[in-house]
Amino acid sequence: MSNDDILRVKDLRVRFPLKRTGFGKRDYLYAVDGVSFNLKRGETLAIVGESGSGKTTTALTIARLQKAFSGSVQLGDIDLLALKGAELRDMRNRMQFIFQDPYSSLNPRLRAEDIVREPLDNQNRMPAEQRDARVEELFSAVGLRPEQRRLFPHQFSGGQRQRIGIARALATNPDLIICDEPVSALDVAVQAQILNLLRRLQTDLGLTYLFISHDLGVVQHMCDHVAVMYKGKIVEYADRLTLFNHPQHDYTKALLAAVPSVASALRQG
Q1: Domains, the chain, ranges and CATH?
Q2: For residue 112, what are the CA distances in angstroms to 43, 98, 160?
Q3: Contact 36, 8 (CB under 8 A)
Q4: Separation of alpha carbons 100 and 192, rounded Å
Q5: For residue 149, what are the CA distances in angstroms to 29, 138, 155, 167, 170?
Q6: Which residues pair with 136 in a beta bridge?
């Protein structure tokens, strides 16, 4: 275990009860079954797998949005699974989500500037005028114009809405950003723009990403390491070059065979 690790997940298990038949013992489905990994500060770990593989459940459990059955999750020196009440609320400032669907993850009744400012208002540690300046700074950082701050979500394109989501995630300077399929609802050209934005922000701000995706084409230019999940388990874990050049597991090879055209779009972006 390195001192550079910001996130340490060990033997994490999440289970859901199956419908009981008769009077026998209740059975459980282990959606996450003994998952372990470490993530270094300033790097990106991609968790890749098909729908139902357990990748999103893993991310939700790390963020305390899903209950763990067993295991441990540490963010820095904090035991996340032990937090309750105010401590848990404070922790959420250190860990932010960029969600899959930019159409449903933004409050349609709030203006863009209020959406981005909301985490700062919840934190309530910054004077009002500094919050306004922070929102202005964040809009610039994600490529949105100052005059767009007063618009509502329906007045933006899908890619622009995702930029608002990214700005919101950056607001509290989190230690970890969980990107849950952040480009899967966008077309290929816009996917490349958003992925290049995330890479630039990581370089400029030293961000740490846990990147959830169903295809390796999206993450091949984003990640430092890749964990491939299948039926609740990590079946292959490697650095990016090793995994893409010398995949070991048949499931990884199948995912690589389906790499989409976003790869070439990224190289052009």
Answers
A1: 43-68+82-94+176-269 (3.40.50.300), 95-173 (no CATH)
A2: 29, 15, 10
A3: no
A4: 15
A5: 45, 11, 11, 12, 16
A6: none
Q: What is the mean pLDDT of residues 133-138?
A: 96
Q: Report the candidate in 54, 125, 134 with the shortest Cα–Cα distance to residue 94.
A: 125
pLDDT of residue 261: 44
Query: pLDDT for 51-75, tens place per residue?
Result: 999 999 999 999 999 999 999 999 9
CA distance readout (Å), 91 to 23, 77, 191, 206, 210? 42, 12, 30, 19, 16
pTM of the model: 0.91
Structure tokens at 121: 């208002």
Are the C-beta atoms of residues 62 and 210 closer than 8 Å to each other?
yes
160-213 per-position pLDDT tens digit: 999 999 999 999 999 999 999 999 888 888 999 999 999 999 999 999 999 999
Q: Which residues fall within 8 angstroms of residue 141, CB to CB, at 6 or more apart?
A: 167, 170, 201, 204
Q: Where are the beta strands (DSSP E) in 176-224?
A: 176-180, 209-213
